[in-house]
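Section 5: illustrative case.
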């Protein structure tokens, strides 16, 4: 009886063990990277000012700053073509935040007859290394069945296909083809979201220092810690940027709402913020943290209706990030952004209290980012270190102005600021904590207007460049003008033919030239 039971148990155990082994690919030996001839995709995301450049080759260029992003439906796909049949045994996917939770890996000899080699469910994005039994194929397809978020598409930085070296004698190891991808793989086991120790500041912000900055904008909880963000910061430093204004946004439902809260999807996590701050400091950039409050129903933050309860919630929010600014050695901190209804004399006491409590936990430079039509009504400038203006002043009524017209318009605004400083005896430097123009025709008439969504907008990089140049020509003539932060750069490259970003546009050449001589 006991012997029969033991034999039955042994048989079951062995069958189970064989079943486990059957699900694993055999040991493959050394693997090589299978260089792709070309790639194709089912669709592109064409959302202006958000999507990456629509280029399917971004999936096979070895660059973790370029990516493919699809339209916003399920069953989108990307196909890799080696140009000739290869022995494939591994696919590595470098997912952006918009990954798919359910998807298939398929192979084909002719791009018509497909065989599924892996069908995966409930995945978690990141970097996925997928092994399977070697199979001969010319084409490999990633077919997304279910997206993480129905409001997003599918987004991939890179697809890397590998196969046994013995079966692919003309191909080389990944490290010799794309070292960056190999380095990413070697470090991917680090704990996601692990808290980083603060990096030392490159030095305190001097009152006489010209701030050569950009506003670094992200509406993603982890985007500031991805490799693309690190590469973008390196790019900006090479451009001449020495001051980084990092935006972090919380939300309220309506302008009447009394509670301000973080969004689980759109608010950058503290660890991601810390990573970007540390990266900037390690490069030698000084950092200003720039908290924003946005209204979820689409209303403008300047129309928020304040109350005692609102200020209580706001103080908790702004003190929270003041403590983070202190912990990570930030050189500057903004106590608010474009909250025009709250800076009226009626609420002066509340702001006095907020400034006092911020100074108790943070010792760096302080400013407030006043809207262009608000700066001359703010009463607490003398408690801060410099005047911050989000300088979206209208320039002309002409949709096709000359450079000279733009310069004259900016000279008039500079005269107004100069007169106000003298009349009100505000003995503080002035920094444009935001300045920006869309790369669209007529942007100078309403610089605050996001023209990137207008169907009738006409791309005009020259007007964007001329408006930036005109501002610097006019304002650098005044000793009070001590810097600007261009709105904006994203942590990853995005396709923005009409938007504010100047990455790769004519205005960037103007910007770089000024940064190098200021």
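Designed sequence:
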């Amino acid at each position: 009886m006991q012997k029969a039971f033991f034999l039955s148990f042994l048989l079951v155990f062995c069958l189970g063990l064989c079943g486990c082994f059957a699900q694993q690919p055999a040991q493959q030996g050394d693997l090589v990277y299978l260089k792709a001839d070309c790639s194709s995709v089912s669709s592109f995301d064409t959302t202006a000012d958000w999507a990456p450049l629509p280029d399917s080759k971004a999936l096979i260029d070895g660059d973790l700053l370029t990516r493919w992003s699809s339209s916003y439906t399920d069953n989108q796909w990307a196909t890799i073509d080696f140009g000739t049949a290869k022995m494939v045994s591994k696919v590595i996917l470098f997912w952006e935040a918009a990954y798919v939770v359910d998807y298939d890996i398929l192979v084909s000899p002719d791009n018509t007859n497909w065989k599924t080699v892996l069908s995966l469910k409930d995945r978690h994005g990141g970097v996925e290394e997928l092994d399977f039994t070697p199979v001969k194929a010319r084409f490999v397809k990633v077919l997304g069945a279910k997206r993480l978020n129905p409001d997003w598409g599918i987004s991939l930085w890179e697809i890397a296909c590998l196969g046994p070296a013995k079966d692919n004698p003309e191909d080389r190891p990944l490290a010799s083809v794309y070292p960056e991808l190999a380095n990413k793989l070697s470090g991917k086991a680090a704990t996601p979201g692990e808290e980083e120790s603060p990096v030392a500041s490159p030095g305190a912000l001097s009152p006489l220092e010209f701030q050569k900055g950009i506003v670094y904008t992200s509406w993603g909880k982890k985007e500031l810690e991805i490799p693309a963000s690190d590469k973008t910061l390196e790019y900006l430093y090479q451009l001449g940027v020495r001051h980084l204004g990092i935006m972090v946004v919380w939300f309220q439902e309506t302008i009447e709402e009394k509670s301000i809260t973080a969004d689980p999807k759109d608010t950058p996590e503290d660890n991601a913020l810390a990573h970007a701050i540390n990266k900037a400091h390690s490069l030698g950039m000084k950092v200003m943290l720039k908290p924003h409050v946005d209204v979820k129903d689409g209303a403008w933050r300047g129309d928020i209706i304040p109350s005692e309860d609102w200020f209580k919630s706001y103080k908790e929010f702004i003190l929270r990030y003041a403590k983070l600014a202190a912990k990570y050695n930030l050189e500057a901190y903004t106590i608010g952004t474009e909250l025009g209804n709250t800076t009226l004399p009626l609420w002066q006491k509340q702001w006095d209290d907020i400034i006092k409590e911020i100074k108790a936990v943070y010792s760096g430079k302080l400013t407030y980012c006043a809207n262009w039509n608000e700066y001359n009504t703010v009463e607490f400038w003398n408690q801060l270190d410099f005047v911050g203006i989000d300088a979206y002043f209208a320039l002309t009524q002409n949709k096709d102005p000359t450079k000279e017209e733009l310069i004259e318009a900016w000279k008039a605004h500079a005269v107004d600021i100069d007169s106000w400083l003298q009349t009100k005896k505000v003995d503080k430097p002035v920094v444009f904590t935001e300045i920006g123009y869309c790369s669209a025709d007529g942007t100078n008439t309403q610089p605050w207007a996001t023209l990137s969504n207008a169907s009738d907008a006409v791309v005009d990089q020259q007007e964007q460049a001329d408006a930036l140049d005109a501002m610097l020509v006019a304002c650098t003539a005044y000793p009070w003008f001590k810097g600007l932060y261009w709105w904006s750069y994203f942590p990853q490259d995005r396709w923005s033919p009409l938007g504010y970003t100047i990455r790769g546009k004519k205005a960037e050449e103007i910007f770089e030239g000024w940064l190098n001589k200021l």
